[in-house]
Amino acid sequence: MNRKNGGERVLTNEALYQKTPQQLTTLLYEALLERLTEAEEAAEAKNYAAASKNIQKAVDILTRLGSGLNYEAGIVADQLEQVYNYAADELVRAVYSGNYEVIGAVRELLQPVAQAWNKAASTSAARTTAGQRTQTQAYDKLSMYE
To which protein family does this belong (predicted)? Predict the structure, then answer.
């Protein structure tokens, strides 16, 4: 991971391709919340151009999160799609109306979703690691010679 001149984190292509889909989604949530916080701070400082730019990035991230949904997983995917669409619509309205107070409400809506994802992803990663360890141990037992 490298940093741009502005201190923004940037993943190299190599690092990006080494991430699991769950890790990529976690990164998207982190970036989304960072963009919303930066948009909120910019709006409070009356720097509406910066606020709009960060809102645009947040809407792009919401679109990417929505496009990665697995609809075969059930109703949760449909509900997440509705949340993402609602959040994106509210952010776009904020830019057009100049009502930047909406950013905080959207961030508060999405924060628990991001936290739930992070918890689920870390639980899944722990299970996967334990499963890999079990597979490795089983392989070691079968391949050991006395």
Answer: Belongs to the FliS family.
